[in-house]
Amino acid sequence: MPRGQGFGQGRGGGRRKMFFLESCLLVLLHREQGYGYSLMDGLKEYGFRTEEMDISILYRALRELETAGLVVSSWGEDSLGPQRRMYTITPQGESTLTEWIQALRQRRMEIEALEAAYDAVKKNN
Amino acid sequence: MPRGQGFGQGRGGGRRKMFFLESCLLVLLHREQGYGYSLMDGLKEYGFRTEEMDISILYRALRELETAGLVVSSWGEDSLGPQRRMYTITPQGESTLTEWIQALRQRRMEIEALEAAYDAVKKNN
DNA sequence: TTTATCTATTGACTTTTTGTCTATAGTGAG
DNA sequence: CTCACTATAGACAAAAAGTCAATAGATAAA
């Protein structure tokens, strides 16, 4: 009965949007370490409209990633203004990212299948 | 601040998984009318593991589609066993489906962008 | 003809997720 | 010292998705 699509074990949805967000964050951190606002900026690459996004969501995602051991953080060196919490991806984060990319690939192919089915029927009218 | 990714206006997520499910249902109904269990069967085409899925979720989705005017239902002709509620897509359902497919296409391309970014960095190791 | 069983659908309850709003805290300017 | 700005954190409420029955007709079996 349980264990719906994709992954996730919780009830109300079990991952979903956060999954894509966290995957993007891991890809960004795979490239180079970063902190809240720098990552927020990097998200634009993946279609996030960050102007319309509450940054709390990003920090929540980062804390979840850290709790899961996929990233570690430390207070960064002096930067003009308040201290920044710098995030770095862990080896476990790297291998998890590989799995997540696989899952996204799977998801993309499911969407493709639906697109194809729709286009096929559309022709028949 | 509001109006996150994709669509939806509510708080807790605003569409997401249901969106893909309902899109699949509309594609199936675009092809031919159907009822609960026949649609459940059709979902297998799109990667749903229906054995592990509570059918309540499907009926909830169908009722939502009907409330939105995207499908209509009527009690079907005699079929061995209890009555079946037959669903048919409406013209509004057809045009909404076109939009939804567009949105899914967009989502697919976002995933592709992330896959590409990941593969690009991966090479550098 | 009761009883049991299977199919089809519906509704209530509950947990989890997610959006929003507010708070803390350091820094620099006036 | 006060004000404004940046960076992060936490609490709360609303909504979504998962689970668990309940209803109800029809057929088969005892």
Fold and architecture overview:
The structure is a homodimer of 125-residue chains. By secondary structure, chain A is mainly alpha-helical. Chain A has a single domain (17-123), classed as Winged helix-like DNA-binding domain superfamily/Winged helix DNA-binding domain (Arc Repressor Mutant, subunit A), CATH 1.10.10. A two-stranded antiparallel sheet of chain A has the order 1-2. Chain A has helices at 17-31, 36-42, 55-67, 91-123; strands at residues 71-75, 85-89. Chain A contains 4 helices and 2 strands, in the order αααββα. In chain A, 54% of the residues lie in helices and 8% in strands. The interface between A and B is large, with 39 and 39 residues. The structure holds a DNA duplex (30 and 30 nucleotides).
Q: What is the average of the pLDDT values of chain A?
A: 83
Kindly name the structural category of chain A: mainly alpha
| Estimated share of beta-strand residues of chain A | 5-15%
Biggest sheet of chain A, open or closed, and with what strands and sense?
A: 2 strands, antiparallel
Q: How far is the first residue's CA from the last residue's CA of chain A?
A: 38 Å
The largest chain-to-chain contact, stated as pair and per-chain residue counts, equals:
A-B, 39 and 39 residues
The H/E string of chain A reads HHHEEH
Going by CATH, the architecture of chain A would be Orthogonal Bundle
Helix content of chain A: 40-55%
CATH topology of chain A: Arc Repressor Mutant, subunit A
How many alpha or pi helices of chain A? Answer: 4
The oligomerization state is homodimer
Q: Into how many domains do the coordinates of chain A divide?
A: 1
The CATH first-level class of chain A comes to Mainly Alpha
Q: pLDDT under 50 segments of chain A (min length 5)?
A: 1-10
Q: Give the C-alpha Rg of chain A.
A: 18 Å
Name the shape of chain A in a single word.
elongated
